[in-house]
């Protein structure tokens, strides 16, 4: 995917090493990560940033830093994780709590999907899994046109999650 790419209100770009403190406000937050495996540490986040920079180089997609165009504030992260099946990727979006409820997640996620399609990576199917107790998250997936396909057990979170899919081609 070509970075940066933008929407009406947002700019999405490849993660940078010095995003660490802003991303820690997101991945380090107990509240934000309540349904997503729990809060992370600064050193793990640093490794994730390195991982996503490398993923972008190798596969042409990754998880991006989301900035508000108006202020240049880093407000979230959104993009794709690789999956065991190389034709598939997992969509994720985590936003700083100060910026919830303004439609930013749906706007960013839709832009990531459009960019993935446009840049013709090898990804054929996008998958997302959400905790059923997290309605804000499954509402985002509905808004961007993903389809609920049923519940599935996940070892990492040790629970059943609601799965969504979108075929890209
Ligand atoms: C999930 C998340 C990304 C949504 O971000 P957002 O920018 O607020 O999302 P949007 O504004 O695009 O849409 C959220 C929708 O959920 C609704 N919503 C928010 N909280 C809700 C709640 N507790 N119960 C029901 N609906 C809720 C909003 O009203 C909105 O729906 P609407 O457009 O019909 O009014 C954000 O809350 C977040 O970062 N949460 C923590 C991380 C997370 O759970 N990520 C996803 C799965 S790992």
TrEMBL record:
Taxonomic superkingdom: Bacteria
Database matches in PROSITE patterns: GNAT
Matches recorded under InterPro entries: Acyl_CoA_acyltransferase, GNAT_dom, N-acetyltransferase
Molecular functions (GO terms): acyltransferase activity, transferring groups other than amino-acyl groups
Domain spans labelled N-acetyltransferase: 10-169
The protein's name: N-acetyltransferase domain-containing protein
